[in-house]
Amino acid sequence: MKPTFKSPALTLFSATGLLASTGIALAAVSVGDTLGNTEDDVRAALSSLGYMVEDIETEDGEIEAEVLMDGQEMDVVVDARSGQVLEMELEDPEGEETDDD
Can you tell me whether residue 3 is helix, strand or coil? Predict the structure, then answer.
């Protein structure tokens, strides 16, 4: 009988590929994450995580980005000095914001 070889790295790689192919998001932004302290840095960080940045602006020391992912709209508020996410607000279907900080 031929011996079976199982590699933990291969198993992890296969599981990661399975998750990605089923559409499960592997990366998401959370309050406290550091995205950068300029609009360009924040846009690049969010885009690299799969978010589509619809609008971004700096106001009163905060960078506010309106993003879309998997049909869900949300606002991400980042401290312009530290680059950390201060809050995330999900848009509900009626257009009202729900605070997720």
Answer: coil
Over residues 57-99, the pLDDT tens digits come to 999 999 999 999 998 999 999 999 999 999 999 887 665 555 6
Tokens of 24: 């499960």
The per-residue pLDDT for range 9-25, each reduced to its tens digit, is 444 344 444 444 434 44
> 75: part of which helix (H) or strand (E)?
strand 72-79
| Integer Cα distance of 46 and 58 in angstroms | 16
Amino acid identity of 32? G
DSSP assignment of 16-73 equals HHHHHHTT--S----TT-B--SSHHHHHHHHHHTT-EEEEEEEETTEEEEEEEETTEE
Residues 59, 64, 65, 66: is their CA dihedral positive or negative? Answer: negative
Q: Which residues pair with 79 in a beta bridge?
A: 62
